[in-house]
Specification:
Structural class: mainly alpha
Distance between the termini: 42 Å
Strand order of the largest sheet: 1-2
Mean pLDDT: 88
Helix content: 55-70%
Shape: globular
Largest sheet: 2 strands, antiparallel
Order of helices and strands: HEEHHHHH
Radius of gyration: 18 Å
Length: about 200
C-alpha cells in the first residue's frame, strides 16, 4: 500500500477518535479554556484540531499521488469515501451537540449521497465525473464552516460577528448549488431511454 492510500486510511481512522472527543461525556476532560470571555471545552478543542488535521490530509494525499504517479483504484475509491465520512460524521456530531439544525446536516449529506450515486452511474457508463470548481468550493466552504463551529466561532466571537452561522449557511447554499451543477452538466447520464 502506497503513502497516499495510507494517509487516506489514517483519515478514516481519525473519525471515530474525533467523535469520542466530541460526543463522549467524560468528567475528566470537561475542563474549559477561557480567554477574554471566550470559552471552549478542552475535548471540543481536541476534536476540532483532529478534524482540521484530517481535512487537511485530503489535499496532501491527492497531491502526493499525482506528483509521484501513485494514483491507484483503491485511492480513487477511498479518497472521496473518506471525505464524505468525515463531513457526515462531524455534521451529525454538531447536530447532537446542538450547534446546527438537523436540516443543514440532512441537506449536505443528501447532496453527497446524490452526487456519489451520479458518479457511480457515470462509472457504469464508462466515464468519470471530475471534481468541478463548485465541488471544490463546496469542500472548502464546508471545512471552514465546520472548523469555526467546532471552535465556538473563534476568533469572531470577540468581534460579535456570527461568522459560524454565516459560514454554515453559505456552505449549505454552495453545497446545494454544486449538487445541482453536477446534475445539470451530467443530465445525459440520467436518460432512461436507450439510443
Amino acid at each position: 500500500m502506497n503513502l497516499p492510500n495510507r494517509i487516506t486510511i489514517a483519515r478514516i481512522f481519525m473519525i471515530p477518535v474525533m467523535l469520542v472527543f466530541l460526543l463522549v461525556d467524560f468528567q475528566w476532560w470537561s475542563y474549559e479554556l477561557s480567554l477574554g470571555g471566550y470559552t471552549l471545552p478542552v475535548n471540543q478543542l481536541i476534536g476540532a484540531l483532529l478534524f482540521i488535521v484530517a481535512a487537511s490530509t485530503d489535499g496532501i494525499d491527492g497531491y502526493i499521488a499525482r506528483k509521484h504517479n501513485m494514483v491507484t483504484n483503491l485511492g480513487k475509491l477511498l479518497d472521496p469515501l473518506a471525505d464524505k465520512l468525515l463531513v457526515a460524521a462531524v455534521l451529525v456530531a454538531l447536530v447532537a451537540m446542538g450547534e446546527i439544525e438537523a436540516i443543514i446536516a440532512i441537506i449536505i449529506i443528501s447532496r453527497e449521497f446524490a452526487v456519489t450515486g451520479l458518479r457511480e452511474i457515470a462509472l457504469l457508463e464508462g466515464s468519470v465525473i471530475a471534481a468541478s470548481k463548485w465541488g471544490k468550493a463546496k469542500t472548502i466552504a464546508q471545512i471552514i464552516a465546520i472548523s469555526v463551529l467546532l471552535l465556538n466561532n473563534f476568533p469572531f466571537e470577540w468581534l460579535n460577528i456570527p461568522f459560524d452561522e454565516i459560514a454554515i449557511w453559505a456552505a449549505t447554499l454552495i453545497t446545494i448549488y454544486s449538487g445541482i451543477d453536477y446534475f445539470v452538466k451530467n443530465k445525459k447520464l440520467l436518460s432512461f431511454s436507450k439510443s
